Amino acid sequence: MGDLGKRLARGEVAAFAELYDLCADRLHHYLVSQLGSRDDADEVLQETFLRLVRGREKLAGVESIAGYSFMVARNEALRRLAARSNENRRRAEAAELFLEATHDDHEVREVAEELTMALARLRPEQREVVELKCYGGLTLAEIADVTAAPPGTVATRYRTAIGILRDWFSRTCHD
Amino acid sequence: MTDDRTDEWPDELAHLSPQKAPADLRPRVLTAVSEALSAATNTTDAPKRRKPRWERALELATAASLVIGIGMNLWQARPDATWREQAVRRPPEAKALTAKQPNGSAARAIAHADAAKADARTSWERYHQLLRDLAATTATFKL
């Protein structure tokens, strides 16, 4: 990772392609969950990479390039959300988050929709931690860096969110 | 902090596959990245603009006139400026006159010195009155 950081800092296009392959899917999923729109996520992901290009000198000293990329993406997403604060915030639909949401099998489709609904019940900061942990692949320490929250708070948010999701699923299974 | 185990994640959800970024986004992003990098490189490589001769001459002339202006200002404000002496004519000291003049003319000289002193005092008062008037009004002098 250190080598990739140095190559990025030197401005090698191939290094940015490598970074894209490493974390673009995860970043995109995170951005969809935050922005509620795949089109917006496309634009913000591109803007994230342009930000990384503009500040590439810093990348040589970054410990976790993926974590740093998530932090930049998060800032871009917040900027986008602030720009449209007067509009209603849209929640991502199941089809925008999970492949199974368009599956032929009704039961498989239902699980994806249930999870999307369960995620929507979480508070935004809990949903963000779950997203970064489970789909972004970040550690809790990295999430603390990305969200600028104390590590203990991040851990609590994660545990609480998982508890809510478990309750939700146990209730829906019993129904 | 808790450990990073993912087995806390409900089993029902573990097998769900997250959507990926659209396939056509990769070339779009990397093209934009490439353009941004080449633009940054061109900006860095561009030679620095050398100022034309007239621009440097203008800068030099401005600096020189500034220095001359400051110098002239200091010169006219020097402590021993003769104009100040001329503006306020001081009377000769009476003691000096008595010491130098012969006895007969000493009284006359003293009287003359006193008169000159009184005249000078009047001049001072006029001068101060003029300054007070000037401070009290915004009107300019008309000769």
Describe the model:
The complex is a heterodimer of chains A (175) and B (143). Helices cover 75% and strands 0% of the residues of chain A. By secondary structure, chain A is mainly α. Chain A has 2 domains: 2-83, Rna Polymerase Sigma Factor, Chain: A (Orthogonal Bundle); 94-174, Winged helix-like DNA-binding domain superfamily/Winged helix DNA-binding domain (Arc Repressor Mutant, subunit A, Orthogonal Bundle), CATH 1.10.10. In chain A, α2 (13-35) runs antiparallel to α7, α3 crosses α4 and α4 packs parallel to α8 (140-147). Chain A is globular, with a radius of gyration of 17 Å. The N and C termini of chain A lie far apart (47 Å). In chain B, 5% of the residues are buried. Chain B has helices at residues 11-14, 25-45, 53-76, 82-87, 94-100, 103-136. Chain B is elongated and about 130 Å long. Chain B is an all-alpha fold. Residues 1-7 of chain B have low confidence and may be disordered. Chain B has a domain at 91-138. Chain A binds chain B through residues 11, 13, 16-17, 20, 24-29, 32, 38, 41-42, 45-46, 49-50, 53-54, 95-100, 111-112, 115, 133-135, 139-141, 151-152, 154-155, 158-159, 162, 165-166, 169, 173, and chain B through 1-2, 4, 6, 8-10, 12-13, 16-22, 25-26, 28-30, 32-34, 36-37, 40-41.
What's the main sheet of chain B like?
Answer: none
Q: Would you tell me the structural class of the helices and strands of chain B?
A: mainly alpha
Element order, helices and strands of chain A? HHHHHHHHH
| Strands of chain B, total number | 0
**What is the molecular shape of chain A?**
globular
Largest interface: A-B, 47 and 28 residues
Could you tell me the number of beta strands of chain A?
Answer: 0
CATH classification, class level of the largest domain in chain A: Mainly Alpha
Q: Which CATH-level-2 architecture of the largest domain in chain A?
A: Orthogonal Bundle
Gap from first CA to last CA of chain B: 89 Å
